[in-house]
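Record 1 of the preview.
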Amino acid sequence: MAAFGMIEKKIIYRLFGIGSGYIFSFFSNDGYNKNDTRDIIWDSCGINIYNNDDYKDLSQQKCVEKIFNSNNNTLIANLLQGMCDYFCFKMGSSFWGDEDQNDYSTVQKIIERLKSSDSIDLPNVSDIDNIELLVADIEKNMQENKPELAIDRLHTYTAYFIQSLCKKHDINIKKENGEFIPIDGLMANLKKLYIDEGYLDTEFSKTAIKTSISLFEKFNNIRNNKSYAHPNELLNKIEAQYAIDIIIPTLKFIEQIEEQKDASNDIIEEMPF
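->
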């Protein structure tokens, strides 16, 4: 349960009555059952524990713990918030003790921390109108644990970013017929520039940049054939998340080597001769 520390885990389990295979065990006499757990998890995480093979044979406690242990921080935060909402609904306004208040406040802080830790760190693209709407769409799908829906939007953002770097270096972004060059083709031209002009110090980094060309080619394929860019069957959630986890750090690496070179050039220009 890496999302929580030991004390945080104990507070969460105490607040929500988690133990002996159940959650909200203190509401059992009031009719709480596994159907309620299913509804909380479905509403907050989009997982149907009765139909999903990974969950359908698990106890209520094991279902919750599986989400805690094997999902991104945003989804864990969503589940915690769903459980908080149910707790508030059942408790009303008259039955809160000091321990309940303190535990609830602690869990709310955990939720805030988990959500902020899963924020998306995309490279800067400043010359595109309304780019913040594209970023917001990517973040919304990621926070709702729908990486398969973020693929197309991230591909668009990637194209804008790579194109902006090519413009900066006077590299053509269109073919003679006016069509845009795919991002893997643009990256091939940037790779040549980076190696020829000494942007990279190690063979490891040079190989990483070369490999990114093939990576972006496959990303094009996913976008065209496994995303809602067209009426496709969507890429499965695990592979979609993995693709995003690979593409975003690659973009950040490219941004950082650009910034490093710019800073080096600025120092040279400022040196007296």
